[in-house]
UniProtKB/TrEMBL annotation:
<dbReference type="InterPro" id="IPR020624">
    <property type="entry name" value="Schiff_base-form_aldolases_CS"/>
</dbReference>
<dbReference type="InterPro" id="IPR013785">
    <property type="entry name" value="Aldolase_TIM"/>
</dbReference>
<comment type="similarity">
    <text>Belongs to the DapA family.</text>
</comment>
<feature type="active site" description="Schiff-base intermediate with substrate">
    <location>
        <position position="160"/>
    </location>
</feature>
<feature type="binding site">
    <location>
        <position position="44"/>
    </location>
    <ligand>
        <name>pyruvate</name>
    </ligand>
</feature>
<dbReference type="InterPro" id="IPR020625">
    <property type="entry name" value="Schiff_base-form_aldolases_AS"/>
</dbReference>
<dbReference type="GO" id="GO:0009089">
    <property type="term" value="P:lysine biosynthetic process via diaminopimelate"/>
</dbReference>
<keyword id="KW-0457">Lysine biosynthesis</keyword>
<keyword id="KW-0704">Schiff base</keyword>
<dbReference type="GO" id="GO:0008840">
    <property type="term" value="F:4-hydroxy-tetrahydrodipicolinate synthase activity"/>
</dbReference>
<keyword id="KW-0028">Amino-acid biosynthesis</keyword>
<keyword id="KW-0963">Cytoplasm</keyword>
<feature type="site" description="L-lysine inhibitor binding; via carbonyl oxygen">
    <location>
        <position position="48"/>
    </location>
</feature>
<dbReference type="GO" id="GO:0005829">
    <property type="term" value="C:cytosol"/>
</dbReference>
<comment type="pathway">
    <text>Amino-acid biosynthesis; L-lysine biosynthesis via DAP pathway; (S)-tetrahydrodipicolinate from L-aspartate: step 3/4.</text>
</comment>
<feature type="binding site">
    <location>
        <position position="202"/>
    </location>
    <ligand>
        <name>pyruvate</name>
    </ligand>
</feature>
<dbReference type="Pfam" id="PF00701">
    <property type="entry name" value="DHDPS"/>
</dbReference>
Length: 293
């Protein structure tokens, strides 16, 4: 269902508000460069600091602009099960192809609690659900046994796996049905996870290099592993640079340097330091970007 390079898109801001014009332009940039899906209102989209109205607006805009050309996996996670159901229902009503649902953060549920949370969402909203495991953000790691159990629920169709554990990913791939999708949640782990049998990536870097990320996944799918590996290493410094500071600080700075969005991010995140900006600028120059700022 979901394969290849899928972008976790930023939410462009202008004067403190969602910049609809730039958001639509970003969608077009992605689709025209081969991206196979769009994820609005994930971590990279600053979902934690969007109001409910803004969250729903961003998803509505993206679905409208995509117009059925690629799947839209709408961010719908929260540390509240009730709020998650609300956001997933909006995603369904807006016409999203799936909902991306993060493990509840801060309240640190047990593995049983995680299972019941996702089960409740899946049973109360008739939309495909992609689990999202990112323990570095949430302080809880959803273990393979929990994912495997959840994969048996009809409309839980895959996972964005960002634990950085190849062993954990391998256990999930080995013990779930062929049609259960495993997507990398870390750009630097995409090539290794493809080698294990993963299906693609929900990517930060694709905001910047959609063509190359798409080409890496497509080369791998055609069994051209050497070409895919070359792209992996070509982009490796970018993968690291986009995490010099907390995501999405660096990726929004990169898009600003490229002239694609305004230089705005919402508190409590702040602008990238001058030192790290220059390091990131050099990485982009090395990739032959013609920067506007």
């Amino acid at each position: 269902m979901f394969k290849g390079s899928i972008v976790a898109t930023v939410t462009p801001l202008k004067n403190g508000n969602v910049d609809e014009e730039r958001l639509r332009e970003l969608v077009e940039f992605q689709i025209s460069n081969g991206t196979k899906g769009i994820v609005p209102c994930g971590t990279t989209g600053e979902s934690a600091t969007l109001t409910y109205d803004e969250h729903c607006k961003v998803i509505d805009i993206v679905i409208d602009q995509v117009n059925g050309r690629v799947p839209v996996i709408a961010g719908a996670g929260s540390n509240s099960t009730h709020e998650t159901v609300f956001l997933a229902k909006h995603a369904k009503e807006a016409g999203a192809d799936a909902a991306l649902v993060i493990t509840p953060y801060y309240n640190k549920p047990t593995q049983k609690g995680l299972y019941e949370h996702f089960k409740h969402v899946a049973e109360n909203v008739d939309i495909p659900v992609v689990l999202y495991n990112v323990p570095g953000r949430t302080a809880v790691n959803m273990l393979p046994d929990t994912v495997i159990a959840l994969s048996k629920i009809k409309n839980i169709v895959g996972i964005k796996e960002a634990s950085a554990s190849l062993e954990q990913a391998a256990q999930i791939i080995e013990n779930t049905d062929e049609d259960f999708v495993l997507l990398s949640g870390e750009d630097s782990m995409t090539f290794p996870l493809l080698c294990l049998g993963g299906d693609g990536v929900i990517s930060v870097s694709t905001n910047i290099v959609p063509g190359m990320m798409s080409q890496m996944c497509e080369s791998f799918a055609k069994n051209d592993f050497i070409a895919a590996r070359k792209i992996h290493y070509k982009l490796f410094n970018l993968f690291k640079g986009l995490f010099f500071e907390t995501n999405p600080i660096p990726v929004k700075k990169a898009l600003y340097l490229m002239g694609m969005i305004e230089n705005e991010i919402r508190l409590p995140l702040v602008e990238m330091t001058p030192e790290n900006t220059e390091r990131l600028r050099q990485i982009l120059i090395d990739l032959n970007f013609d920067l506007k700022h």
